Amino acid sequence: MTRGAPLLYAAVLTLLLAGIAVWLLLPSPVAPPAGRLRLVPLHYNALPGWYGSDPSAALAALRRSCSVLRREPASAPMGGAGYAGTVAPWQTACAALPVRTSGPDAARAWFERHFAPAEIEAGVRRQGLFTGYYEPQIAGRQVRTPPFTIPVYGRPRDLVSVDLGRFRSRWHGQLLFGRMAGDQLVPYPSRSTIEAKGLAQAPVLFWTNDPIGLFFLQIQGSGRVRFGDGSVRRVDYAGQNGRAYTAIGRTLVQMKALTPDQLSLQSIRDWLVHHPRQAPQVMNSDAAYVFFRLAPLNHPDLGPRGTEGVPLTPGASLAVDGRLHPLGVPFYVAAAPPRKGALPLRQLLIAQDTGGAIKGPVRADVFWGFGARARNLAGGMKSEGRLFVLLPRPLWSHLSGMAPAQERPR
C-alpha cells in the first residue's frame, strides 16, 4: 500500500495491472530491498556479460516505446522518481534509431553510442529480486454449452476506478477499484461471492471449462482464448474488484499441503488439479478477482499491451515499479539463471509494464512470452541480481559529473 495514505488502508488499496508475475502465487522468498533509490554511473565494461549479450530484441522493443515517446511534449517529465529527466533527450535518441540492424554487435554498438549505464541501488544494497510472467491460454466457447459453463466476465457496468495520483502526487500510479453504495465507494464482492452468485452487472465475454486455467489467467492479468472454431483472441486486463490479494502458495503452506521449498507454478497447479474438492476453497482464499476485455490477436509473436500501451516483446520487455522508474527506458539485468540448468540472465530489456508485486528500486518482472517454454521460465524464476539503467548520454554526463563514474574489469 502507498505510504502516507492511512485513510485508504481500510478501503483495501490494491494495484493489479496487466502483467502480474507468477511470483504472486508464492510467498516472497526474498523481501524486495528497502531503501532510497540511488544511481551509480558506470562504463559498459562494468556490466556483467554486456559484450556477450544480444540487445537486438530490446532495440525492436525500444522502437515500439519510441512510438509513444514521440507523441509526448518534449518538456514533459519521463515519470517515476524523476532521474530520467524530460522526454526531450529520449526523443533525440529515438530519432537516431536505425532502420534495421544486422545482429547483436550492431545493436550493442548503437546503444553504446547513444546511452550510458548507471547501476540502480536501494540504499547500500545492489542485489534485488527478479521474477517472470508469461501469456497463458485457455479454451473458450461463445455460447454456454457443457462442459463450458464457467463465465469469464468483462468489466462490470458499475465498476468505478479512481486514479489516486489525481488527488495526491505521492499516490502516482495507484488505482482504487470499487462500486458506489449511496455516496460511499466500497469494494466489489470477493472472489468466493462472485463464484457462488455470479455478477449480473458484468457481461459474459465467453465460457470456459477450466476453473484453474481461469484462475491463472487472472493471476497473469492477460492471456489468450482459443475458441471451438480454432480462432484465437487476446484476453486483456480491464479492472478488478478492489479486494486485497492473497498468494495461494501461502495458503497451501499454511494447510501443510506443500512445503515452502516445493512451491512453484507447476507444483501449485498440480496440487489444484489433483485435489478438485479442495481447489475452489484454496483459490477463493484470494479475494481479488480480475475482469477482462477481448481484443484481436494481431501479432501472435508479441505479447499483450503493457502499461505503456505497446505490445510486450518476449525476453525484451520488463515490468518495473512505476512509482520509481519511467516506462520506455532500457534496463540491463544481471541475475541468477531463471531456472535450473539455464544460463545466468544477462539481458537488456525495455520497461513497458508494471505489476502489483513489483515494488522497490531493484525489483522487476521479465516477460517471457507465450507457450510452454515461457511458462516454464516464468514459473520457476525467483532470481537475485543487479539492475542497471541506460540513460541518454547528455543525462549520464550530468549524473557522472555529480558522482565519480566507476569502472570495473570486464
Tell me what the structure shows:
By secondary structure, the protein is of the alpha+beta class. The chain folds into 2 domains: 6-28 and 134-296, Barwin-like endoglucanases (Ribosomal Protein L25, Chain P); 37-132 and 302-402, Barwin-like endoglucanases (Beta Barrel), CATH 2.40.40.10. The chain contains 11 helices and 17 strands. It has helices at 6-9, 56-69, 88-95, 104-114, 191-197, 211-220, 248-254, 265-274, 279-284, 372-379, 393-402, and strands at residues 37-41, 115-122, 128-135, 137-140, 150-153, 160-163, 175-181, 184-186, 204-208, 223-227, 232-240, 290-296, 317-319, 330-335, 345-353, 363-370, 382-392. The strands form 4 sheets. Strands 3-16-13-15-14-17 form a 6-stranded mixed beta barrel, surrounded by 4 helices. A hairpin with a 2-residue loop joins strand 7 and strand 8. The longest helix is centred in the N-terminal third of the chain and has 14 residues, at 56-69.
**What is the residue-mean pLDDT, rounded to a whole number?**
87
Distance between the termini: 40 Å
Q: Indicate the CATH topology of the largest domain.
A: Barwin-like endoglucanases
Order of strands across the widest beta sheet? 3-16-13-15-14-17
CATH superfamily of the largest domain: RlpA-like domain
Order of helices and strands: HEHHHEEEEEEEHEHEEHHHEEEEEHEH
Please tell me the total number of domains.
2
Q: What fraction of residues sit in β-strands?
A: 25-35%
Set out the fold topology.
Layout: H1 6-9, E1 37-41, H2 56-69, H3 88-95, H4 104-114, E2 115-122, E3 128-135, E4 137-140, E5 150-153, E6 160-163, E7 175-181, E8 184-186, H5 191-197, E9 204-208, H6 211-220, E10 223-227, E11 232-240, H7 248-254, H8 265-274, H9 279-284, E12 290-296, E13 317-319, E14 330-335, E15 345-353, E16 363-370, H10 372-379, E17 382-392, H11 393-402
Parallel strand pairs: 3-16, 4-10, 13-15
Antiparallel strand pairs: 1-2, 2-17, 3-17, 5-9, 6-7, 7-8, 10-11, 11-12, 13-16, 14-15, 14-17
